[in-house]
User: Fold this.
Amino acid sequence: MPDRIILLVDMDYFFVACEELRNPAVRETAAIVGADPKNGEGRGVVSTCNYIARKRGVHSGMPISSAYRIMPDALFLPVDMEYYERKSAEAMGIIKRFAEKREQVGIDEIYLEVQVGADGYAGAERLAKQIKEAVAAGAGLPCSVGVSVNKMVAKAACESAKPDGIRVVTEEDAREFLSGMPVGSLHGIGKKTEERLKRIGYSKVGDVAAASKMLLIKEFGACGAEMHDAANGIDRSGIVERWKAKSISREETFIKDTSDPDVVRESIIRLSHDVHCSAATDGVAFKTVGIKIRYWDFSEVTRSISLHYHSNEEEAIRMSALHLLDANMSRSTAIRKVGVRVSNLADFSGQKKIANFVRVLG
DNA sequence: TCTGGGGTCCTAGGACCC
DNA sequence: TCTGGGGTCCTAGGACCC
Assistant:
């Protein structure tokens, strides 16, 4: 019996659940939160949809135009991030009262590490019930909870509990629990890796668990070792309580692909401004400025440049980003999206202005 | 089917310094 | 004239996650 147990609390269909709160009619119909479908011409994707839409094959990440083709009559709602962030803060505030060690991941997930007494998993399961009830009563939102020895298994347990459920997987049961799942359901194994694993004959988590660790390391490097551990229910990563951003970025997809330098430059200037606002709010200075260009065919380039010193000035972002754009934009290739990012961040905690800190490109 | 936005981590080569 | 090893930083790209 472990002395510590991990709970993963994951909000169910979070964005749509928030929309239901302010408009109960949403509950009765197929609802999709995401980009504007524009009668099937819209760019962008589905952020979240409710279970009525999921039954018809709509899912997160699906092109909004495809969702529209499947269900033109569904209720399409725009993403109202500020509202969801408020609801998230409410729910997370309630959940955090149940444990001292916790790690929030994104807007709708949080890991808790709890000390349990002699009643072990039974105690953790009772706690999970209390959490669900408190979140439902206090924030009006449904969630699911996975309970296990580590984050990775708790995550898989939570997935299998959805929606509105609790699933406990003990240390002894972890391997068995995971073994029948497709390899792609392991955290960290995406489409590409799943394909590669399939090609060498591993399609179930159990296949990877039984494979030679050396072979996986040879094939996938450091990921191979992690993959083998994960498949065997082992995850040594702990709860990371205080999390600091390592980069800040903003991106914009154009309504129509463009090769007009003015349009692209204006966008870069706007994005530079937004990135600067965000950095200023967080009280961080940056040393590296980068841009991303996605062309019409989805090919992408990233370019970055490091300043000699950390800076907190908008001008440093704008000048660097425009410089990188000018050096890399070809007038003949249509651009779909551009982005601006700062990284190599350092705290400057707001007390002093970083004057004379910058000297950007001549 | 036709693909958003905001992040993280890993790899790998090259520059540069001691 | 030929040839070390280690450490750190920079840059670019890829995979992945929510």
In short: Residues 355-362 of chain A have pLDDT under 50 and may be disordered. The CA atoms of residues 246 and 343 of chain A lie 6 Å apart. The radius of gyration of chain A is 23 Å.
